[in-house]
Design a protein that fits this description.
By secondary structure, the chain is of the alpha+beta class. It contains 2 helices and 2 strands.
Length: 88
């Protein structure tokens, strides 16, 4: 399984990321909401969301986690998806 998207480098946050206040706020929010999540795999890789348009539209939305638990606004994703023009 090849885990490459737009390049060979994975974005990671090291152990010092755990001293950031935002990381702990996100953890507490997830814990209180009962989030179980997937605890398998590499825990230091930062995620992201891309909405890619058809044809020459390119990337319509790019969200890269700045710290663990940094989520994209679903309204932004829906707005970007509405901009996708079907290929004719």
């Amino acid at each position: 399984l090849c885990k490459l998207f737009y390049g060979p480098l994975q974005r990671k946050m090291g152990g010092l990321g755990f001293i950031r206040l935002g990381v702990w706020q996100n953890f507490v929010r997830a814990w209180r909401s009962g989030y179980q999540g997937n605890m398998n795999g590499e825990g230091f890789i930062l995620g992201g969301v891309f909405v890619i348009g058809s044809g020459d539209q390119g990337i319509l939305l790019e969200h890269r986690e700045k710290e663990f638990g940094n989520k994209v606004d679903p309204a932004d994703v829906l707005e970007a998806v509405k901009k996708i023009v079907p290929v004719k």
